[in-house]
Structures are given as structure tokens and as C-alpha cells.
Amino acid sequence: MSKRVAVILSGCGVFDGSEIYETTLTLLRLDQLGIDYRCFAPDIEQHHVVDHRNGEVVPGETRQVLVESARLARGEIAPLSELASDDFGAVILPGGFGASKNLSDFAQAGDGMQVIGELVEVLEGFHRDRKPIGLMCISPVMVPRLLGPGISVTIGNDPGVSGAISAMGGLHRSCGVEDIVVDFENRVVTTPAYMLATRISEAATGIFKLVDRVNEMMGL
After folding, report:
1. Contact 81, 75 (CB under 8 A)
2. Which of 12, 39, 137, 175 is catalytic?
3. Where are the alpha helices (DSSP H) in the chain?
4. Overall fold of domain 4-218
5. Domain residues of the chain, as ranges?
6. Is 137 a catalytic residue?
7. Mind listing the pLDDT tens digit for each residue in 148-179?
């Protein structure tokens, strides 16, 4: 049976959804490797809407995470509620502030964060079945709440975010933008991506390594 990977999105746009370059690079590498993929997103309202020209919140405007994520997936997307670990060999979560505003409340609550229950349920299935889980940029901050304590991850070297991961029981490992951190026991792969990247080629190197390692682990 051909390999299939689920990609979980959190909107469209770095400041209030999924980071567009990270998502595109992930899908590109999956396609280059001949891996089938399907995108999913929760059918919920965004935390807020940000004008990406100036980084300011747009008062009174609302958008739906699933609808916005469909922009990135060219319409080929399904609600997160339809994602079952039995149907896929791995799952990958790109970053962007949507991970810390829509999938969780880390942007507001810090190490007191909570993750939406739907995502917890889905990721528990992949973890229980020992299927690889890839996360990039800010997304790894959710790992202690999603999968439990004691799992090694990276968001690069930001002291505030890495401190929050430690406070929640996670194990943070400093990492360069072009590299990855792999927790082999828990089958979790992470990379800093745009937590550190200053150009798209830097992000691409780490993201491609993450996808390659997830691909390798699906065969183990």
C-alpha cells in the first residue's frame, strides 16, 4: 500500500493561521517523494484576523479556520473530525501563529496553554499507533499537551518558548534552522523552520529533512 500522510492546517497566513511557505514546502517534499497526502483543519472560528500588511488585528472581522485552510490546500481539505490515524502512516503540522492561536491558546496562556480537544484526540491516535509525527516552527510547543511529558522537541533557541516547553514537562533541544531533532522512542520529528529562518531556502532545508525522516520512519 502506498504511503499516506495527513497534514493538519490552522488557517492561512503566518500571523493568524498556517505559515504558507512551511505548508507549501511540506507538500512539495511529500509530492517529490511520491507520498500521497491529505490536508485537514478544524472547523472552528479563528482567534482573530490579522492584516498581514501591518501585523495589526482587524476589529470585527471573523474567519473560519477550515475555510481559510482550504486556500492553502487548493480546496482539497477535510474537517479535522474526519481524520483517523488508521487511514494514514504519519501526520505533519506546519507552524504559523495559527498553531498558537487556533489549535491552542499558547499565544495568550503561555505554559498554561490548552490544545483543542479534537487535535488531542487525533494526535493520541497516531502516537498510540506509533506512527511518526512531524511538527515545525511553533507547533512543537504543543507536544507536552498533545502527547505527554518527556518528549524531545525543538523550536530553535528562543528562551521564552523553550522555557515554556520545559515548564510543561517537555524536553527542548536547541537546533539550527537547517536541522531536525528526532525523538526516536516517541517517533516525533521537529525543526525550527521560521522560528529561525531568514529566507525560504533555510526553511526548506530543515523542512525537507523533517519530511525525509518521517518518510524513513514510516518504513520502520
Report:
1. no
2. 137
3. 20-32, 65-72, 98-101, 106-109, 117-128, 143-147, 159-167, 200-218
4. Rossmann fold (3.40.50)
5. 4-218
6. yes
7. 999 999 999 999 999 999 999 999 999 999 99
